[in-house]
Amino acid sequence: MMAVAAPAKPETLADAVAEALAALRYAADGEAGPVAILWPDAAGQWRGFVEHIRERMPHLYELGPYDPANRTGPAIWLKCIVARALPDQSPPEGVVPILYLPGVARQELRAAGECRPLYQPLVELQFRGRVWHQRNGRDWTVDALLTSPEALGLDVAGDTATQQAMLRAIERLADEQLSGMKGRRLDVNFFDSLSVSDVGREILAWMCDPEGYRKRQEPAVFETFASKLVRDFGIDPATQQPLEAAKCLARGDDKWDPIWQRYADAPKAYPKIQALMAMVPGGHFGTDTIDRNPQRNLDDEKVLRDAMRRLASLSHGEACTQIAQLNEKSAGRRGWVWAKLGESLLADALVPLARLASAAESPLGGPDVTTAARNYARDGWQVDRDAMHALAIAQHSPDAELVGQVVRAVYLPWLTRTAEHFQKLCKAAGNDLAKLVVQVEGEREVCIVFADGLRFDAAAWLQEKLEARGLVVKMGHRIAAIPTVTATAKPAVMPLPGKVYGASMPDTFFPMVRTANGDKIATTTELHAAMAADGVAVLGPDETGGAASDRGGWTEVGKIDERGHSLGVELAAAIEEQVERIARRVGDLLDGGWSRVRVVTDHGWLLVPGGLPKVDVPASVVQTKWSRAAAVQGASKVSVPVAGWHWNNSDRVATPPGVHAFRAGEAYSHGGISPQECVTPELLVERPGATAVISITNLRWTGMRCRVKVSGTEQQVSVDLRLTEGDANSSLVGGPKPYDAKKGDVALLVADDTFEKQKAVVVVLDGSGSLVERMTTIVGGS
């Protein structure tokens, strides 16, 4: 989980349509995003539906008579909306408008020469935008969306009477719970019953728009409704206004409680009820119905806002305690209907803030780098997730800065202490630190997906998204190369054994790569060429082939790091789109024939609202100075910590202490030494039932004997200790040893003690000899 929990399944037809349209916003890496989403509807079946949900989708525009107040207009007006030529009417930059096109079919737009002149201005938008249509290319009709296995998969009768009743009920169908429609036959009786049986919905619809409601009903139908409202609920729609009904809701009169519950179940379907309830004098609300008073909710938010402003002046311990108390006091309000409408933002933000405050009282520990990294990979990343979650909830709201200040007050001290401890461990490791960095090996039928800047908390969210798709995901971790910048760390996870090396460290931190045309600076272009020459299938953003390659595949996806540098704190709300892109790419590769997908990254990052604290390093002692890394000039003495460059340990990299930066105002940064930057995720993804998920659960040295425990060994596996994981000839124990599942471990004895303190890799092999798991270790070490 990251900024928010994994998306829930749509509850209503309106939710399903909104999510389907929203999904079209995403573009593959290397592609420009769509300028508009086109919703063709040749028969105009969705007109009533669109009218019903218009207020809930402020960036939905309709082809029709010129009426900008209701966001309808001719084709040329829609073109102006897309071009942002009408600032007062167009959506904000970055928001993709949805163009509903009643009376226009996708096929007509595609046959540009035969398209009616009135609609011809829209033809080119299908190429710069996205068209919402079925997989077979046809427009989405109401029946198709309800019944198609690729959509909702409901059982709808196909007779003419049912189809007609379904279209008559389209407005009411919009907010019908999908759970109540699954597993039953939807026929004419079902759809007709929607028009008359839900009295609560009818009353709420009347309260939202009394005049419009009356005009939409047949006279006899309205008379029946009015009579029932007078008889059963004591309100006469002919003489009384909706405010009188709102007072009944506020008091909690017995017959009005179900009506309130109907509203509370789907408040977004009745957007004007909130304003009505705000007009009800406070005396009408009872002790048991205070949660129905929107003003009370706003008053409580103000009190909470004032309390949160005072947190920054408290000590770290006091602030953490106060947040826990505020969270407990606000718990009840998160169950009020106003929270569903986004009116209890600070109460919602307190949930991750309270988790953050609780965890932030204990910095991440561990006696050595390996243990500290394992602790961070196990659950330490959840502190980062909670900070990002709180920031995402408040993003683009007036309280965004306030929540950022609270996050900073609680999160920054924890980050600082955690980073300082990790830096001490790395300093103690000395030259052995580089030995913990393991290059990825290319494997047949395994495609490596590289996602720049996939920090551990983002990877955990990716895991949830992949598992929600029914995939099997195993999460592991790696140590990034120093400095934790792409130029240095990316080549360290590429399947190029022996091809990358470091000469004298340049101010760009790029190593060199050996190619058929000589040694080159290890840019992405040269690295890709070297992999391709080595037999790795290097795939473009949309390519999926190459599964038969003996060295496996490599592809790159996502722009988390790029977005972090450009957005800063606003990355918290933007990261879901990037995680979703990676998830879709992994799914496409598995669909394209790859048995497994291994997701790796180069480095993580730090993100702190208000910017990282600044530390100075004289320009005279460094060749280049980045935010969290600087190349030391020769033998110059520096006052900040230094570490050896991964590719040539004789060259030194200056890194800021704790979570400081060499530049002021850096909210997002990486390049230094901290668990967030150095401990990177690795996800192995496959389809269920492909193979058992095998894990090394314990590795322990006694002298030169290594004992290894493995889980998930229903199949026959063997274990080896090698200098290079993909090279069977580099075994230090005479080759693979069969794993004894009954005994529960296997012993690997290194007879040659000259290998003591060298880096090695324990590998687990399946029955065919394919590598299924590995763990780095130091011979004779911990």
Give an overview in words:
The protein folds into five domains: 13-193, no CATH class; 198-292, no CATH class; 300-429, no CATH class; 437-605 and 670-682; 691-778, Immunoglobulins (Immunoglobulin-like). It is built from 27 helices and 29 strands. The protein has a six-stranded mixed beta sheet with strand order 9-22-15-8-14-13, with helices on both faces. A five-stranded parallel beta sheet has the order 3-2-4-1-5. A four-stranded antiparallel beta sheet has the order 17-18-20-19, with no helix packed on it. Strand 17 and strand 18 form a beta hairpin. Helix 10 (199-208) crosses helix 11 (210-216). The two termini are 32 Å apart.
Class derived from helix and strand content: alpha/beta
Number of domains: 5
So how many helices? 27
Rounded to the nearest angstrom, the radius of gyration is 31 Å
- Nearest-integer average pLDDT: 90
Helical percent range? 25-40%
How much β-strand is present in the residues? 15-25%
Low-confidence stretches: 1-7
- Which outline best applies? globular
Biggest sheet descriptor:
6 strands, mixed
How far from one another are the termini? 32 Å
What order do the strands of the largest sheet run in, or round the barrel if closed?
9-22-15-8-14-13
How many strand segments? 29
